[in-house]
Automatic annotation (TrEMBL):
<feature type="domain" description="Alpha-D-phosphohexomutase C-terminal">
    <location>
        <begin position="485"/>
        <end position="544"/>
    </location>
</feature>
<keyword id="KW-0479">Metal-binding</keyword>
<dbReference type="Pfam" id="PF02879">
    <property type="entry name" value="PGM_PMM_II"/>
</dbReference>
<comment type="similarity">
    <text>Belongs to the phosphohexose mutase family.</text>
</comment>
<keyword id="KW-0413">Isomerase</keyword>
<comment type="pathway">
    <text>Glycolipid metabolism; diglucosyl-diacylglycerol biosynthesis.</text>
</comment>
<dbReference type="GO" id="GO:0000287">
    <property type="term" value="F:magnesium ion binding"/>
</dbReference>
<dbReference type="GO" id="GO:0006166">
    <property type="term" value="P:purine ribonucleoside salvage"/>
</dbReference>
<dbReference type="InterPro" id="IPR016066">
    <property type="entry name" value="A-D-PHexomutase_CS"/>
</dbReference>
<dbReference type="GO" id="GO:0005975">
    <property type="term" value="P:carbohydrate metabolic process"/>
</dbReference>
<comment type="pathway">
    <text>Lipid metabolism.</text>
</comment>
<keyword id="KW-0597">Phosphoprotein</keyword>
<feature type="domain" description="Alpha-D-phosphohexomutase alpha/beta/alpha">
    <location>
        <begin position="218"/>
        <end position="310"/>
    </location>
</feature>
<keyword id="KW-0460">Magnesium</keyword>
<dbReference type="Pfam" id="PF02880">
    <property type="entry name" value="PGM_PMM_III"/>
</dbReference>
<dbReference type="Pfam" id="PF00408">
    <property type="entry name" value="PGM_PMM_IV"/>
</dbReference>
<dbReference type="InterPro" id="IPR016055">
    <property type="entry name" value="A-D-PHexomutase_a/b/a-I/II/III"/>
</dbReference>
Length: 561
């Protein structure tokens, strides 16, 4: 069935939501094709896309279809129907409706659900799965994407997003649903006995667990101020409650605290975008804050700005994580609490700096593919064997986890860690940037950056595939005149030196350069983008910046952009 047939099928469906019917009638031909040329797919973080009518959009019909597949998978888990599924959602358009549709579809399969009574962040959903002993979890969110997006993430019984093997099983069941418009959904009355509303009891348990992340709980918190913004998202009360209970002077950006799905008072809800910090920096200057923290809409990512020499300096996810690691490991070592078998996890597109910090303390490092599900899976493995003890996990895109009672990125834990780090080092006469510069002096100066080429629609998908195919067919032997010493192709599990990669297959290419830098390319699993990651090593900050510009320009020339 081509996109025109799909479009006509939806338009002629008697039971179609009238708002979607109106949207269908207003579509031009290009929009019809993009909305119906394929079914929206699972990526590295579940199913995510534009809200609206169509099989390639997020709407109640595609949510229902996805839940049929997930329900069948849950029923295969030990006592899955009785253990049930925890469900949470953020502030986005349709999030509450999608959560309720999910619960009703699962009820149709005899599966219990536990829905949060109001919006809660992703890490609290991960915690709730474990706390309630559920067989799985659902989070309705599009994370840091713009307001016109929403998404659907599914979890296993450890609170970890489904690894590819299990996600493939769910996908198989989803694809067996021939007609998304024909999925039968129980009425609210019929589903009533299966649906449970939860909230405060989960909040209290989660907040107490987060408070337990303090390394130096007796540290004096006077003379330290942190400005915080939830960017209109779900972390507002969790972050403010935890930090206030622990005695921190936390100053909220009130204009960005309301759960507004249009993100009216921020230029972007994404901590990776520099302009998202504008209002927070204005307030920080006014109150003379030491640290700024902002979280994304579903509360799993944290961006940090540190006051340094009177200026507010934005830290990348790689930089802040390296400082967190230094603090955690130095304090545990000082207290004699650093395990001999400690292990830290990060991803193949994460800076080398964190690895160097960890190894300097004798901590093992294991890399995973992009996506926190892989870090969660590593934690599960060693939890069972006891071979290694988890100490920290992070990825470059502003996500980390400190304690493994959550198996996803946890910005509530991260805000507490940023506050404790900032407070501790201020009392040593330093700020977070001073600590970062000390790490550069010890381990080498690194500059990490990213170029995300947006390629929307049918033609965009073709162009992304073409870029990756061309790089495979004609792999660069040098970039900007610097020799490529090793090339890795994660889709084929091969390296140019003849060795193999022992990770699940993924569409990622990585080039190691003679000067200690590396560059990686991968299509995004959740957005219509092709991403290029640059980890550039220089003799100092200026050298690293100049080299970054050179490598970025050269890489774009290689791919013809």
């Amino acid at each position: 069935m081509d996109y025109r047939e799909n479009y006509e099928k939806w338009l002629s469906f008697d039971g179609l939501d009238e708002s979607l019917r109106t949207e269908l009638k207003g579509m031009d031909e290009a929009t019809k094709e993009d909305a119906f040329y394929k079914n929206i797919e699972f990526g590295t973080a579940g199913m995510r896309g534009l809200l609206g009518a169509g099989t390639n959009r997020m709407n109640i019909y595609m949510i229902r279809k996805a839940n049929v597949g997930y329900a069948k998978w849950i029923l295969e888990q030990p006592n899955g129907a009785e253990r049930g599924v925890a469900i949470s959602y953020d502030n986005r358009h349709m999030s509450y409706i999608f959560a309720n549709e999910s619960a009703k579809v699962l009820a149709g399969f005899g599966i219990k659900t536990y829905i949060m009574e109001s919006l809660r962040p992703t890490p609290e959903l991960s915690f709730a799965v474990r706390h309630l002993g559920c067989a799985g979890g659902i989070m309705i969110t599009a994370s840091h994407n713009p307001a016109e997006y929403n998404g659907y993430k599914v979890y296993d019984d450890t609170g970890c997003q489904l690894i590819p093997e299990w996600a493939d099983q769910v996908t198989k069941y989803v694809e067996e649903v021939e007609d998304e418009l024909a999925v039968k959904v129980p009425s609210s009355d019929e589903a009533y006995d299966y649906i449970n509303w939860v909230g405060e009891e989960i909040d209290e348990a989660y907040y107490e667990a987060v408070k337990g992340c303090e390394i130096n709980p007796g540290l004096d918190k006077s003379d330290f101020k942190i400005v915080y913004s939830p960017q209109h998202g779900a972390d507002n009360w969790p972050v403010r409650t935890v930090l206030k209970d622990l005695g921190y002077d936390i100053v909220p950006v009130l204009s960005q605290c309301a759960p507004d799905p249009d993100y009216s008072n921020t230029k972007s809800p994404n901590p990776e975008v520099e302009s998202s910090y504008d209002e927070s920096i204005k307030l920080a200057k006014k109150v003379d804050a030491d640290v700024i923290a902002i979280t994304d809409p579903d509360g799993d990512r944290l961006g940090v700005v540190a006051k340094h020499n009177g200026e507010y300096v934005l830290m990348s996810g790689n930089q802040s994580a390296a400082v967190y690691l230094e603090y955690i490991l130095s304090q545990l070592k000082e207290k004699g609490k650093l395990p001999d078998n400690a292990v830290m996890y990060n991803t193949i597109v994460t800076s080398d700096l964190g690895e160097l910090v960890a190894r300097s303390y004798g901590v093992d490092v294991e890399k995973t593919l992009t996506g926190f599900k892989f870090i969660g899976d590593k934690i599960r493995k060693y939890e069972k064997t006891g071979e290694k003890q988890f100490i920290f996990g992070y990825e470059e895109s502003y996500g980390c986890v400190v304690k493994d009672f959550v198996r996803d990125k946890d910005a509530v834990q991260a805000v507490l860690l940023a506050a404790e780090c900032g407070n501790y080092y201020k009392k040593q006469g330093k700020d977070l940037i001073d600590v970062l510069n000390d790490l550069y002096a010890k381990h080498g100066t690194f500059k990490e950056s990213q170029i995300a080429l947006a390629k929307a629609g049918v033609e965009g998908a073709k162009r992304i595939a073409e870029i990756m195919d061309n790089l495979r067919k004609d792999a660069p032997t040098d970039i900007a005149g610097v020799k490529v010493t090793l090339a890795e192709d994660y889709a084929n599990s091969t390296r140019s030196d003849g060795t193999t990669i022992d990770l699940p297959k993924s569409n990622v290419l990585k080039y190691y350069l003679e000067d200690g830098s590396w560059i990686a390319a991968r299509p995004s699993g959740t957005e219509p983008k092709c991403k290029f990651y640059f980890s550039i090593k220089g003799t100092d900050a200026n050298d690293a910046s100049l080299k970054t510009e050179k490598f970025q320009k050269a890489m774009m020339e290689i791919i013809g952009e």
